[in-house]
Design a protein that fits this description.
Residues 20-39 are annotated as: Disordered. The chain is 6% helix and 37% strand. It is built from three helices and 33 strands. Strand 29 (365-367) and strand 30 (370-373) form a beta hairpin. It is globular and about 60 Å long. The two termini are 22 Å apart.
Length: 456
């Protein structure tokens, strides 16, 4: 409730300020903290090209909208968020945030100690690519729809729209619930197109989802999502981008799903349908001993699908795959390699305590407390997902230390079947075609040097 009130007050102040003109000094105040680094409080929206320097620590004081121009963030820059703050790149602006493995850009909590999920609201990129909603555009989650406020709108007709670049960056302790089913995540992408560049990005300990994609075609590469409070990767409203080299690790006490995939709740067949193509992913739960009551790896509903290849799904307490509803089941029942909900060359291991079968995930229909249909989907995942022809099988990937929360190692051990090129497909054009291995990491561990896993 405290965070919700803070968010409401923040949004109210932004709405009022937008109608008062530009009579305030846009230059943020600066101070000189110990060590010679400049500290800057960011409390006004950004209009026009702006650069944030590596020798400065920037603190977001509220929702900061980049209304126009390009916000450039230098390698090694630290951005801190106070409660009720977020950085939003509107669809009339662009982000150019390029760190390096040695000098990643870090978005984190402004607290000096006892940082926790939800300390601030996260990073939002909005674009002009297609959505499957009426009218083609809408207000991004985490904000109330406000008449005349274009800053929170996203969507359009340009599937190649460039929201900008976020590379070698960490986003920590973010996420915000404005209202039930209306949240900001660690990283939120709304209607971002295929020219957007999200590469080498970690989202750690987010209050809601790690990354959520609303429509669009934005590609993701070299992504690490660790210990999200809800889902690690959530996509809906027609997202159909390319994803390669994705790592998910859930906490034993929080976290719901590795993927929650939706398309359109009211009209599941509305184009574009949510069907991303995912290559070389590793989804790690926390095993049967978790305190979390339910923990599902991959859930597809409301007509969403996926084309998943060369991936690992291991250590999930409750469920491996849940195909929920007749629309998503119809995509799975399509035949051939172009089936819009399909798995090829995927290793499952330690699913609901079993290494022989994934559980059946029934979708009962309940009316007034009475079950009228034990399974509306009419698809038994336990009998059809594991498929020798498609090389979808139970196989121990032999990862080094995937369950370690503070110093994980998601690389396969020497001799692991995941490293056998004969057990992997060759990724198609548009992906890294040299990645002939199963899972997110092959012979070279690309997570080293720029990721971090702080407990608080």
């Amino acid at each position: 409730m405290k965070r919700l009130l803070a968010s409401l007050l923040t949004l109210s102040s932004l709405t009022l300020a937008a109608g008062c003109g530009d009579d305030k000094d846009p230059t943020p105040p600066t101070t000189q903290p110990p060590g010679g680094t400049t500290a800057v409080d960011v409390s006004e929206n950004i209009k026009g090209d702006t650069t944030w320097k590596a020798d400065t620590v920037y603190t977001l004081k509220k929702y900061i909208f980049v209304e126009s121009g390009t916000l450039t963030i230098e390698a090694g820059t630290t951005i801190k968020g106070e409660e009720g703050s977020a950085l939003i790149i509107t669809r009339s602006a662009t982000l150019n945030a390029v760190g390096t493995a040695e000098k990643p850009i870090v978005f984190t909590s402004s607290k000096s100690e006892r940082r926790e999920p939800g300390d601030w609201a996260g990073v939002v990129l909005l674009g002009r690519a297609r959505l499957n909603v009426s009218g083609g555009e809408t207000t991004i989650e985490g904000f109330f729809a406000t008449s005349g406020n274009d800053l929170t709108k996203y969507g359009g007709t340009d599937d190649a729209h460039n929201c900008g670049t976020l590379k070698y960056a960490r986003i920590e302790f973010a996420g915000f619930e404005l209202a039930p089913n209306n949240e900001l995540n660690g990283l939120t992408l709304g209607g971002c197109g295929s020219q957007t560049n999200i590469d080498y990005v970690q989202v750690h300990k987010g209050l809601d989802d790690g990354i959520e994609l609303f429509g669009g075609t934005a590609p993701l590469k070299h992504i690490v999502i660790t210990q999200a409070d809800d889902d690690a990767l959530d996509y809906d409203l027609g997202y159909s981008g390319r994803i390669q080299f994705l790592i998910v690790q859930q906490s034993p006490t929080v976290g719901d799903r590795g993927i929650e995939a939706s398309s359109n709740k009211s009209t599941p067949t509305q184009d574009p349908i949510s069907i991303p193509e995912i290559w070389n992913a590793t989804f790690i739960g926390s095993g049967p001993g978790t305190n979390n009551p339910t923990q599902e790896a991959l859930v597809f509903n409301t007509g969403a699908g996926v084309k998943m290849r060369n991936s690992i799904v291991a250590h999930w307490k409750t469920q491996g795959v849940d195909i929920d509803g007749t629309a998503s089941a119809a995509l799975f029942n399509e035949t051939g390699d172009n089936a819009r909900l399909s798995f090829r060359n995927v290793f499952f291991w330690d699913i609901a305590g079993s290494n022989t079968a994934i559980p059946f995930a029934p979708n009962p229909v309940v009316v007034n407390g009475v079950t009228t249909d034990a399974d509306a989907t009419k698809l038994d995942e336990s009998k059809v997902v594991i498929n020798a022809t498609n090389k979808v099988q139970f196989q121990d990937p032999q990862l080094e230390a995937a369950l370690n929360l503070t110093a994980p190692n998601f690389a396969p051990k020497a001799g692991s079947a995941a490293l056998n090129a004969d057990g992997a497909l060759t990724p198609p054009t548009g992906f890294d075609t040299s990645a002939r291995f199963v899972g997110a990491i092959g012979a070279t561990d690309w997570t080293k040097g720029w990721t971090a896993y702080p407990a608080e």
